[in-house]
Each structure stands twice: as structure tokens, then as C-alpha cells.
Amino acid sequence: MFDRYSIAASAQQLIDHFSVDVPAHYKKYYNAGPTHLLPIITHHHPEGLSFFYWGAIPQWIKNKNISEKLINVRAETIKDKPVLKKKMMRFRCIIPSDGFYCWKKVGKKSAIPYRFFPKNKLPLSIAGLWEEFEDEQEETHHTFSIITTQSNKQIQPVNERMPLLLNKETQKVWLNKDASENELLGMLKTENTIMLDSYTVSPRIGLLSANESTLVLPSAPADQFGNLTLFD
DNA sequence: CCAGACGTTGTT
DNA sequence: GTCTGG
DNA sequence: CCAGACGTTGTT
DNA sequence: GTCTGG
Asked: Could you give the CA distance from residue A40 to residue A142 in angstroms, rounded to a whole number?
């Protein structure tokens, strides 16, 4: 499961890097997680940021509680599932980020959080799918899910899965309205070429409500209970 | 979708 | 709702 | 054709 | 080969 990242780039960095308009209400998230209202860029409207909730609610779950949210879609699954392929054809987005978090298991129940971020400090583009649906009260909701893939050599020791990171070229295809199904399926196999650095961070990222700027900074390796550990 | 069947007729 | 295994 | 499953993972 | 029960 991939459930934390940060988007703490300045408005100007987003404008420069993605050529998008950034509204005044844009707010930095040092600890973006499921259910947060986060900035994404849809292929329908790549000129601006859209603010959607992280975590899709499948329409066939009528009355189930919200914990059933789907925050990830496996890249490998999309090619096999007609529903997802259709969704890929119609509802692509990228999620701007400047780093992401992964938990490394160190025991049955404890894990230590790591942060991965690009060496060149430029924003990352995470591939995603979005959806719009009406609930029973006829309220329209906009949500998105992040596409995950098998971790590469660097992240593997920490976590099995990582977000699908797009580079300049693959991002262009992903946001192209006229991209073909084959082209897009190809993007799902994008190997990460972006050089990343990593260090351990505060386990406070486990709290969805935590959002202080220091969360992105290095912190002594500690598990979610706050126990310091020598094994990182 | 695919394994497995694939014909007819009727006491009263 | 749509997809699919039997 | 239809019953039953259906994008993800695992306590942070 | 085509039809169909599961």
C-alpha cells in the first residue's frame, strides 16, 4: 500500500514546472494522505490544478462505510481489467509531488518511515486515475487513485510497492487526450529514471492530521510507537 | 467463456 | 453498476 | 446465462 | 461444426 507523499512545492515552482495556473487557495501538504483534498492535473484540463479527494469509492459499494476507499491501482492490473482500462482511457491524471513516504517493516508490528525525494529537487509526477460520481444525495464527488508499481532496486529494501513516477516524456503521453490505448499501456511499464535520495523521517507521518513542515526533514529511525531503533 | 453434448418418441 | 467463472 | 466477485493492503 | 449448462 502506498499512502503518503508530500506536495510542498511553492506555487511558483508548480507554475514553472507544470505550466499550470495555481489558485490562491493552494496549500502545501507535508503529509498528504487518503481523504485529503489534493492538487492534481487531469488530462482534460492540463492547464490548471484540480483539487480532488484521494481515495475512490466504487459505485457498487452503495452504503458501505468510507473505509472501503481505493487509494491505489496496480499498474499490472490495469491491462487485465476492462473496467480499469476504460477508466485509463477516460480519466487520467498526474499527481504533483516533491517526495513520498514508505514504511519499512522491522518486526511483526513495527515499521519505520522513510522519505524518498528527487536529488535534483524538481517536482515529481505520479501517475493516477480520477473519477467523478454522484452519491445518494446526488452530491458530486471527485476523487483520484495513485497507480503503483513494483519497487525498483532502490526502494525494494524498504517497501514492495512504489508510486508510478512519470518522466518528462511519459508524462506528456499520459496527459495527451489523443494517446492510444497501446501507448498508455506502455506508460504503465515506465521504469523510474529519476535519481532519488532517501532518509528516515518522523513516524508522525502516520497521523493523517499531522502536517508540520518538519515532517519532510530527516529524523532518527523510529517506529510508529516512537521507539528508536538501531535497525533502519 | 468453454467443456461437453449433440437424434426421436411416448403407455394413457 | 460491470465483469467473469462455471 | 447468471451468481458472485469486483481497483488495495494490512493494525502506524 | 454449433448449442448450452454451469
From this structure: 11
pLDDT digits (tens, 9 = 90+) for A125-176: 999 999 988 777 777 889 999 999 999 999 999 999 999 999 999 999 999 9
Whether the CB of A98 is less than 7 Å away from nucleic strand D comes out as no
ipTM above 0.90, yes or no: no
> Rounded to whole angstroms, what are the CA distances from A4 to A30, A36, A88, A96, A185?
9, 11, 22, 13, 25
- Residue numbers of the domain that contains A107: 5-216
- How many CB atoms sit inside 10 A of residue A194's CB? 15
For residue A228, tell me if it sits in a domain: no
Instruction: Report in angstroms the alpha-carbon separations of A32 from A37, A65, A208.
Output: 9, 21, 8
Which nucleotides of strand C come closer than 7 angstroms to any CB of the protein? 1-4
Element (H, E) at A102: strand A99-105
Tell me if A159 is assigned to some domain: yes
Distance A58 CA to E3 C1' (A): 37
